[in-house]
């Protein structure tokens, strides 16, 4: 009997499956477009074509000839050609001069003793010559300086010699120390990146740059080569290095490719999507970030075809496709087209998209806007990301239809790997930051970790057409929702913001309850209760900002403001309910420990911090707006002196110009991340005040509020 019942159910399920793979789709398998539209997108986007695109751009890493600086770079010409063939509008290559730079033309690293061996040639591996401005044919003995610290140099005669360092980072610092001690060259590794790459990928050369003094040179080598040289020296062998280099000074520029899918003319609003075609002209990366360019090219091709076939409506908002020199190119474009910052309402940035996730031990990650820039755009990306992940995965409860995914998103030449995804907090140092600095909400999609990031092994063979297809489906769906321009889609996005905002407030509630549960004594319990309240109130303020930001999506933004304004008090009501639950949890914990519960009161230190206004002092080269800031990205870092936790630095920089009190800054950072001791923040603020980076002033006393019903005399 049981067997017959299972067979009957399976038969019903199979009928539904044959009628249409999505007939029995679960309600949670929904997103901002219809199932029919999402199916059309999934069927059209091609992982293979994206792979073809990246192979047209950078099939291998190469030394760029100086002649390219006089015209257009080969990648830009390839991308512009494909965009024209696909039917994009207003395709152009734009150049913005920016001084001069050096382009190597010759680079050879040899050992001439104990035997003659050519170790590297830049035409084989361009990343090896760290000092791209080096010129000369120089030879000298090699001296091992270990980690390259000042102590490692003590008692060693390096004058007129090459030094070898196995320090996994800081090649430029070691070069400077060596040259100051009289050395003429450095041979070392620079293995900054994901995981222990020196162990996992011993032949990988990580890209780094050194500005060389005349008559000196710096070479980056793989961990394997460095260890072989070290072994020879440890055996007492004399190792002689010969470096042959030649470079040419060439005109530098910011080069970008721009293309459009035009809107229907019903609105002046526009949107943007893209990735960086160049991170440096010396280094090319198939994944970082020619993959983002290849992906968004394919997104545009598929979108245009689906419009032509009537499967997607023509967008109301014009779509700007931007393929740029990372950050600096985006800034150059906005400087040349200032009107664009006034009309673009959102950006999708794709930076490192196509690795085979299992090979790199990676996830495909959506980086949200920071809490200092709450935006509707996060939930567009998250909705599409989770939709593609859900329909792509096998669910055991579907075993009646053969265990398969409801709509597998896979490429013929790609993997069948699981789609490992993560929605994460903001991270900077890519073009989404630049958009936010111009007041435009932007999110980034990125693969991390990337085991071949910034290295000689960032080549197309690491990429997966299936990952391209999945990323393209997410990107096309997100772009179609963003570019829609209808009030109906605006309301649908707002609903997404409200639903996901409730989940985020629940996460802040869970975080706060965790603080209370972990408290060890009366003092820490009272502090935990205070921190739990801060977390909930912080998230409520963020969610009100998210809903408010969605007003721009309406055809008439005044109508949008009216449509969204009614939700702020409802979010406050949510927060009140969560605060009541936190109070009940605190009261229970206090009763169990024999503690009398009490409402939080400000300490003397908090009262003092509440009276201190923080003002940022403008400095050359400082952060320019939302999303920037020291410590927020892959390069740079905070000033010297006392530091906040690394993950807080970007937001801290953005809070400084907002005329907040020290206590407000502290509560914001604690609410977004984890509790920050007020004393730690004050130490950092005082150190920066001493360095002339911030100004701390006393907050003016607030004027007393006249009692109701009483007239002033």
Automatic annotation (TrEMBL):
Note the coiled coil stretches, chain numbering.
none
Q: Where is the composition biased (Gly residues)?
A: 621-638
Protein name per the record: Peptidase family M28
**Which species is listed as the source?**
Terriglobus roseus
Region (Disordered) residue spans: 618-645
PANTHER family noted in UniProt: N-ACETYLATED-ALPHA-LINKED ACIDIC DIPEPTIDASE, VACUOLAR PROTEIN SORTING-ASSOCIATED PROTEIN 70
Domain Peptidase M28 positions? 257-475
Q: Spell out the Pfam families in the cross-references.
A: Peptidase_M28
- Return the InterPro entries for the record: PA_dom_sf, Peptidase_M28, Peptidase_M28B
């Amino acid at each position: 009997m049981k067997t017959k019942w299972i067979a009957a159910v399976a038969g019903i399920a199979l009928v539904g499956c044959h009628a249409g793979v999505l007939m029995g789709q679960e309600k949670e398998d929904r997103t901002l477009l219809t199932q029919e539209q999402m199916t059309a997108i999934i069927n059209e986007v091609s992982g293979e074509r994206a792979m073809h695109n990246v192979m047209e751009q950078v099939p291998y890493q190469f030394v760029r000839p100086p002649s390219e600086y006089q015209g257009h770079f080969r990648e830009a010409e390839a991308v512009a050609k494909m965009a024209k063939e696909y039917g994009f509008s207003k395709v152009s290559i734009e150049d913005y001069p920016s001084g001069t730079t050096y382009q190597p033309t010759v680079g050879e690293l040899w050992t001439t003793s104990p035997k003659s061996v050519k170790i590297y040639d830049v035409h084989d591996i361009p990343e090896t010559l760290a000092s791209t401005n080096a010129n000369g044919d120089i030879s000298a003995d090699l001296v091992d300086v270990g980690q390259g610290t000042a102590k490692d140099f003590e008692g060693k005669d390096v004058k007129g010699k090459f030094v070898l360092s196995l320090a996994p980072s800081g090649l430029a610092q070691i070069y400077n120390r060596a040259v100051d001690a009289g050395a003429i060259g450095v041979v070392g590794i620079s293995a900054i990146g994901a995981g222990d790459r020196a162990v996992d990928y011993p032949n990988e050369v990580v890209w780094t740059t050194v500005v060389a003094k005349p008559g000196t040179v710096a070479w980056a080598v793989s961990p394997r080569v460095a260890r072989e040289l070290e072994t020879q020296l440890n055996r007492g062998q004399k190792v002689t290095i010969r470096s042959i280099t030649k470079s040419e000074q060439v005109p530098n520029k910011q080069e970008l490719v721009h293309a459009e899918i035009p809107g229907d003319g019903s609105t002046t609003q526009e949107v943007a999507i893209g990735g960086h075609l160049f991170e440096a002209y010396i280094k090319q990366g198939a994944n970082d970030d020619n993959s983002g360019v290849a992906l968004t090219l394919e997104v545009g091709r598929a979108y245009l075809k689906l419009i032509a076939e009537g499967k997607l409506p023509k967008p109301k908002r014009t779509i700007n496709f931007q393929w740029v020199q990372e950050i600096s190119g985006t800034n150059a474009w906005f400087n040349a087209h200032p009107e664009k910052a006034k009309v673009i309402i959102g950006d999708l940035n794709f930076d490192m998209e196509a690795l085979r996730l299992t090979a790199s031990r990676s996830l495909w990650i959506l980086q949200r806007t920071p809490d200092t820039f709450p935006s509707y755009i996060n939930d567009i990306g998250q909705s599409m990301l989770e939709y593609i992940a859900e329909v792509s995965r096998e669910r055991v409860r579907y075993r009646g239809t053969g265990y398969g995914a409801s709509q597998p998103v896979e490429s013929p030449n790609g993997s069948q790997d699981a789609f490992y995804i993560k929605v994460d907090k903001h991270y900077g140092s890519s073009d989404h930051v630049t958009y936010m600095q111009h007041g435009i909400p932007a999110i980034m999609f990125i693969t991390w970790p990337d085991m071949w990031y910034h290295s000689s092994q960032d080549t197309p063979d690491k990429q997966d057409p299936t990952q391209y297809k999945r990323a393209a489906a997410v990107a096309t769906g997100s772009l179609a929702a963003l570019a829609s321009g209808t009030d109906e889609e605006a309301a649908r996005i707002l609903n997404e913001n409200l639903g996901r905002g409730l989940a985020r407030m629940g996460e802040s509630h869970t975080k706060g309850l965790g603080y209370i549960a972990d408290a060890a004594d009366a003092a820490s319990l009272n502090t935990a209760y205070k921190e739990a309240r801060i977390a909930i109130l912080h998230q409520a303020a963020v969610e009100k900002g998210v809903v408010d930001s969605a007003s721009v999506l309406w055809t008439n933004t005044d109508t949008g403001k009216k449509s969204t304004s009614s939700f702020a008090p409802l979010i406050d009501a949510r927060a009140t309910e969560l605060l009541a639950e936190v109070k009940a949890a605190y009261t229970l914990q206090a009763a169990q420990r024999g503690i009398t519960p009490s409402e939080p009161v400000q300490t003397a230190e908090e009262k003092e911090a509440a009276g201190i206004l923080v003002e940022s002092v403008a400095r050359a080269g400082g952060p320019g707006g939302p999303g920037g800031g020291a410590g927020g990205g892959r390069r740079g870092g905070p000033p010297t002196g006392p530091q906040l936790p690394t993950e807080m630095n970007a937001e801290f920089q953005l809070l400084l110009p907002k005329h907040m009190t020290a206590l407000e800054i502290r509560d914001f950072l604690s609410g977004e991340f984890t509790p920050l001791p007020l004393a730690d923040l004050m130490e950092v603020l005082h150190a920066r005040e001493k360095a002339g980076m911030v100004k701390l002033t006393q907050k003016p006393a607030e004027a007393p509020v006249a009692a109701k019903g009483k007239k002033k005399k």
